[in-house]
Design goal:
alpha/beta, Isopropylmalate Dehydrogenase, ten-stranded mixed β-sheet, binds magnesium ion, 11 helices, binds 1,4-dihydronicotinamide adenine dinucleotide
Amino acid sequence: MYNIAIISGDGIGKEVMDACEYLLDKLDLELSFKYGEAGFDCFNKNGTTLPEETIKIAKNSDATLFGASTSTPGQPSPIINLRKELNVYANIRPIKSYKGANSLRDDIDFVIVRENTEGLYSQIEYGDENKMIAERIITHKTSERISKAAFNICKKRGQNKVTCVHKSNVLKKTDGVFKESFYKVAKEYPQITAEDFYVDAMSMYLITQPQNFEVIVASNLFGDILSDQSAGLVGGLGLAPSGNIGDSNGLFEPVHGSAPDIAGKNIANPCSMILTASMMLDYLGEWEVSNNINKAVEKVISDGKIKTPDFGGDASTMELTKAIVKELI
Ligand code: NAI
Ligand code: MG
């Protein structure tokens, strides 16, 4: 029996989570769900985007599934704070081309490992009417920890190269530490090639030679931007799952946000959320079920008969979900 915390959020977060729960219910697994609130709707109701009760539910679960939440003016981001509360420091974002999806090439298969707890997402900003300052904290300890996670993921995936992304030519002190920590850790993995690029050049290489990357490690903001760009390489945010992993907790969420432009229409692509649940099951040790879900998604996408509008079709969120479930059982 696994205790799963479910935090749907708002916008399409709710729609893709409903679809995901529908699929999870059909699996031959004992899952017990506990529900927590977060996000914009939650703020309007409770005066906070992330209630203590939600943090408690997530902390007491075996793993947490998060949908998406709309940003609330003047309020902290619930997902950034939840990542920090759970100390899930590595945000793992696999990017893979699927046959049938609108990918730039058919041989893209890399993973972005984004540092989750510091960098420019400290949410510490201050100043006066003349000047505003945002703190960008980079420590040796955290940079080494995220580099270690990246090399271990590289080993687990049977790949051979880790690429560190930074901007140490300008951010000499902070990104100097990030880069230096990366090469220090790289020495412990002599069988894996270590390389680094500045983030601006990297943005170009991701378009011109995405097939050459295997594992990419980046600080918080750069990792966030590069993961949406990378999702664009393989057909968009409809096929971009992610997992936030720490030493004792896992928080799983699609890369996308609450997509207000399509919310309420039941046309959001549920595949990111479903692949996210698959990452969670892999984390819980249910490798076979996880693998079967990935294969079912791959089959339905490559068949191309049932597609949501982001992939050029007219299927609804639930129609696509049911097609995936049909492949599973
Ligand atoms: P977004 O990721 O919500 O949407 C970007 C574009 O991708 C939109 O055109 C949207 O329709 C499309 N899209 C996203 N997910 C899709 C899916 N599953 N199926 C089909 N199309 C999909 O980013 P945006 O528009 O910049 O932000 C909207 C809100 O979400 C903002 O309030 C933002 O702060 C919040 N946000 C929340 C995140 C989270 O909760 N983890 C992450 C990113 C943004
Ligand atoms: Mg993002």
